[in-house]
Amino acid sequence: MADGHRNEQESRATAGAALAPIRPSAQPPEEPRPPHVGPVSEVAGGVPAVVSTMKHAWGEMGPVRGTRLLLKVNQQHGFDCPGCAWPDPGHRSVAEFCENGAKAVAEEGTTARVTPDFFAQWSVAELSQQTDHWLGKQGRLTHPMVLREGATHYVPISWDEAFALVAEELNALGTPDAACFYTSGRTSNEAAFLYQLFVRQFGTNNLPDCSNMCHESSGTALSETIGIGKGTVTLEDFDKADAIFVIGQNPGTNHPRMLTSLQAAARRGCEIVSINPLPETGLNRFKHPQEVLHLFGSGTALNTLFLQVRINGDVALLQGLAKALLEVEDAKPGSVVARAFIEEKTLGFDAWAAGIRAVNWADVVEGSGVPREQIVAAAEILARSERTIYCWAMGLTQHKNAVANIQEIVNLALLRGSVGRPGAGLCPVRGHSNVQGDRTMGIWERPKDAFLDALSREFGFEPPRHHGMDTVDTIRAMHDGRVQVFFALGGNFLSATPDTEFTAEALRRTRLTVQVSTKLNRAHLVHGRRALILPCLGRTERDVQTGGAQFVTVENSMGMVSASRGAVAPASEHLLSEPAIVARLAEAVLGGRSSVKWSWLVEDYDRVRELITRTIPGFEDFNQRVREPGGFALPNGPREGRFTTASGKAHFTVHELPKLELAPGQLLMMTIRTHDQFNTTVYGLDDRYRGIRNGRRVVLLHPGDMKELGLKEGQVVDLTSHFQGETRVALKFRVVPYNIPRRCAATYFPEANVLVPVDSFAEKSRTPTSKSVVITLSPSPDVGPAS
Ligand SMILES: Nc1nc2c(c(=O)[nH]1)N[C@H]1C(S)=C(S)[C@@H](COP(=O)(O)OP(=O)(O)OC[C@H]3O[C@@H](n4cnc5c(=O)[nH]c(N)nc54)[C@H](O)[C@@H]3O)O[C@H]1N2
Ligand SMILES: Nc1nc2c(c(=O)[nH]1)N[C@H]1C(S)=C(S)[C@@H](COP(=O)(O)OP(=O)(O)OC[C@H]3O[C@@H](n4cnc5c(=O)[nH]c(N)nc54)[C@H](O)[C@@H]3O)O[C@H]1N2
Ligand SMILES: [Mo]
């Protein structure tokens, strides 16, 4: 894409906003006021977390509904938290939720409504001038809505007509591959199974999902090396570990209930090492919001050691750790290397070890930005730990060399024999609450033959065998006209994907965009020639079909499958459940072409689960086992020490140190989450732990770099990204001095997605490089100095 300047002009045009907008804007508006920047929090949780929980829960839902819903979160007969995928403990307390889970529940459980009257009042273009925070605050979608060709406003449409419209467009396509079917990770197993079945009967594997932008790198890295694309630990392992490494993850904000596990571990003497460019508050000290006695103390110290790695310095750092461990082994043979395990269960050790010995310390220190003594100190922790758990998230998965990042962790774990034994293992910490389950159900553009064979056997059709499009392919294909219909089961494709203006153009070129959603978001506002909003039930709501009250199932980050039952009446009588939407869509589109009894299946979700039992390994007796308290665990060979690669062994892998040459004035930028958002859903404008309030368009910089670049605190700057000779611009971000390594910068997602080039993605996993964006900064021309 060579049209970076077009982006700039476009955003400048919408920035004025004095004239009535003509074309809906893909980016949120600029912010009128500077944010308030105060000190970084020393302690996570505590009283402020309790206050924030109540503010969001009661503010959106009122005290009665709010309390009622919160007491059902993650309970045996309640619903699975719609927030992150962190697992639930076996023995649950009455209050099994965190501050940010409460925000997720409040966002869905809100009493505010977006009705047909609302859409009559606001044109699509006018809505696009509002912030993402404002859009979310308008409430739950209540009616199916259509935007007809050339129209400025959405109007109501009946469900039958809506399905007929999708069927008309899909069936008019020259090939089924001219449609893409996106999934976001909140979708239940039942809905996901039906959806992929429908899509494959329609004739394509074009099933991009949020995982493509998330833990795809983990799945790819782990499948290659240990034979399963999932982690190997369970929650109980956290009670037995001697050391826990938390790498490229901010659990205090994104997986707050993980702090409970880390706190318990720290209290019994487990050593916790965090590797991150930022000293994230959650890993520093923690006061459990539900431990009343401790709320006013100083909190539990979590971190034993913090390594402030530079952005994308992890391959260097992890190789440094391995090198230091091999040096300990040389000094004291037999003390570190798990010889018997390596000989019996792995391949490639010698070549790998030779490579690590050949790496020189100067490159490790230079590449990681971490002094050798600190790397050695972390290696000593590893050397004395018999049981180590390695956790990671987006800080590792969203780089060009993301797969290598994760495989370097696998190398370390194999070196110490830390996979497949209690208290130790690999722990990619998943994002969306059912993203892992959706993949298990077949939401994947590259399905295995065995999976397709099972579908073919059970349903008597020949599924397409050629691979489909992932997220990046989908954007490209819409842009150049190969994909004409875009259907999304949840999510916010426009704002979650890279290269916002390019993606917007891609969506605008389609014939039809369809969004199955609970809440209004920007993906409804940047649309194809025609557009539909299909409102659905959320997790929190009772789902009653002709067969009675239903529950759905989800799989958490550790491969446990459990039931989720809604607790309150639906936001509107016009909502359909996701399984019902998929079933009615399939009937409208496939008609007599499908032998599946779609409507009959969704009368009682046990019937869907029965089909899952018959087609997906690990779901034997699904209906019985999921009714047992706590659900059940899916099979996981590596967890039991059986590697499920083709060779039957785990693989050491060799990786080069990534080279990053920044030209003078260039910085490497990561796009991260604030404490007040769930991906593109903005709950509020504060990033409490980082001390930034009432604003999101900020860029965090090292004071030394600010000085060198001649930038002042609070100054308004434009950011330009650089990739293969192309530039992209994001306007008007405020400079915030921060404790971040030199030549590194941080901004918030999704405001900065406009800077992430669509063609910049990880090797093998094709995950957009949202944490490795090369930028320069310049003072915004039409704004005075720091205000
Ligand atoms: N409340 C809340 N919960 C969430 C979400 C949410 O938005 N809000 N999102 C959910 C989803 S889908 C996901 S995937 C997860 C995301 O959970 P996280 O991965 O924790 O989310 P990010 O904010 O992207 O944070 C990445 C962390 O990695 C660090 N980092 C960035 N680059 C590097 C690097 O090169 N090396 C290292 N070592 N660290 C780096 C950042 O400083 C930051 O601390 O959370 C899930 N849970
Ligand atoms: N720059 C940058 N970009 C990123 C990331 C990053 O770190 N940096 N992170 C990436 C990651 S890890 C992820 S997972 C993706 C997230 O990408 P998505 O999953 O596509 O985005 P979300 O913001 O989670 O989707 C929110 C929308 O989902 C809808 N929704 C909520 N609940 C339900 C439900 O129960 N059913 C249905 N049908 N709809 C529902 C609501 O309408 C809401 O507006 O973003 C990616 N994008
Ligand atoms: Mo994610």
Write the layout of secondary structure elements.
Layout lengths: L3 H13 L19 E2 L5 E3 H16 L1 H8 L28 H11 L3 E2 L1 H6 L2 H5 L3 H6 L2 E2 L3 E3 L7 E2 L2 H13 L7 E5 L5 H14 L13 H11 L16 E5 L3 H4 L1 H12 L3 E5 L9 E3 L12 E2 L3 E3 L6 H18 L7 H7 E2 L1 H10 L2 H8 L3 H13 L3 E5 L1 H4 L4 H14 L9 E4 L6 H6 L8 H11 L11 H9 L5 E5 L3 H4 L3 H9 L3 E6 L12 E6 L7 E3 L2 E3 L1 E4 L4 E5 L13 H13 L7 H6 L1 H11 L6 H4 L6 E2 L16 E2 L15 E6 L4 E2 L2 E2 L9 E2 L4 E4 L1 H7 L6 E8 L2 E12 L6 E5 L24 E7 L8
Parallel strand pairs: 2-10, 3-4, 7-16, 8-9, 8-14, 9-12, 13-24, 14-15, 16-17, 17-18, 25-32, 29-31
Antiparallel strand pairs: 1-28, 5-6, 5-18, 10-11, 19-20, 21-22, 22-23, 25-33, 26-27, 29-32, 30-31, 30-33
InterPro entries: Asp_de-COase-like_dom_sf (IPR009010), MopB_CT_YdeP (IPR037951), MoPterin_dinucl-bd_dom (IPR006657), Mopterin_OxRdtase (IPR006656), Mopterin_OxRdtse_a_bac (IPR010046), Prok_molybdopt-oxidoreductase (IPR050123), YdeP_MopB (IPR041953)
Keywords: 4Fe-4S, Iron, Iron-sulfur, Metal-binding, Molybdenum, Oxidoreductase
Cofactor: [4Fe-4S] cluster; Mo-bis(molybdopterin guanine dinucleotide)
